[in-house]
Design goal:
Blueprint (H helix, E strand, L loop, with lengths): L1 E2 L4 H5 L9 H7 L4 E5 L4 E3 L7 E7 L1 E7 L5 E8 L3 E2 L1 H6 L6 E4 L3 E7 H10 L1 H25 L4 H16 E3 L3 E4 L5 H8 L3 H13 L3 E3 L5 E4 H6 L4
Antiparallel strand pairs: 1-2, 2-9, 3-8, 4-7, 4-9, 5-6, 5-8, 10-11, 11-13, 12-13
């Protein structure tokens, strides 16, 4: 792992440190290390969940767990600026989940002692941490609500709307999802089969509610939100 000593611009990319001044960033820069992960490489194993926290600078990662029969269930996605692993550092308990890179990713890694030293010396980081954890809790509530929908279309709608709110870029034609998702990713997130997700999205494509751009990012038309405002 490479050191980030003196690299203020790099640290500034992390949401957790975005509010710090250059002087404040310099004071914590040597407590953080940098690591690259290849697509598909596991970043965090369950048994290591209470040893480090991570912040994604470039790329995309998924948080997931596997059932006894090998079926994968996705809990969350994290992109540039977002962090994970803080809760386990705080309560020292592991969680039954793993994190893997969905594409080549650049990640900041912070050990437990350094993590506590940073939040104790930097009130801005503590405040940002509380905001991030509160947002994650709200996301969990929405995900539980989504999984209780019996109708498959409603599950996919709710997930797409949530991702659009968190990771979408609003344009004249609709909301562009910057997260590149496969139908299998959506299936693992919603507890459905890939075939069911494909059937639902193909139906939306034919009706003009969604489309794919040249980079295979999903464009969600404004009419999609107007027709499904109650979810």
């Amino acid at each position: 792992m490479a050191s980030t000593c003196g690299n203020m611009n790099l640290l500034k990319q992390a949401q957790l440190f975005a509010d710090l001044s250059l002087k404040e960033l310099e004071s914590i820069s040597c407590r953080v290390t940098l690591r690259e992960f290849k697509k598909g490489e596991v970043i965090l194993y369950e048994e290591d969940a209470n040893k480090y926290m991570y912040s994604v600078l470039e790329g995309e990662v998924k948080v997931y767990y596997s059932s006894e029969d090998g079926k994968e269930s996705i809990v969350a996605f994290h992109g540039a600026g977002e962090s994970f692993g803080e809760v386990s550092l705080i309560d020292q308990k592991t969680i039954p989940a793993m994190v893997a890179a969905m594409e080549k990713s650049l990640v900041l890694v912070i050990g437990r002692d350094d993590f506590f030293a940073i939040i104790q010396s930097q009130p801005k980081v503590m405040h940002k941490l509380l905001l991030l954890l509160s947002g994650r809790l709200r996301h969990s509530w929405k995900q539980v609500r989504m999984l209780h929908f019996k109708d498959a279309s409603n599950r996919v709608m709710a997930s797409i709307k949530e991702m659009a709110a968190e990771r979408g870029e609003v344009g004249p034609e609709g909301v562009l999802l910057t997260l590149r998702l496969t139908h299998q990713n959506i299936a693992d997130l919603t507890g459905l089969t890939r075939e069911t997700v494909t059937r639902i999205i193909d139906k939306w494509k034919k009706s003009g509610l969604v489309s794919l751009d040249e980079n295979r990012h999903m464009l969600i038309r404004h009419s999609f939100f107007e027709e499904n405002f109650s979810l």
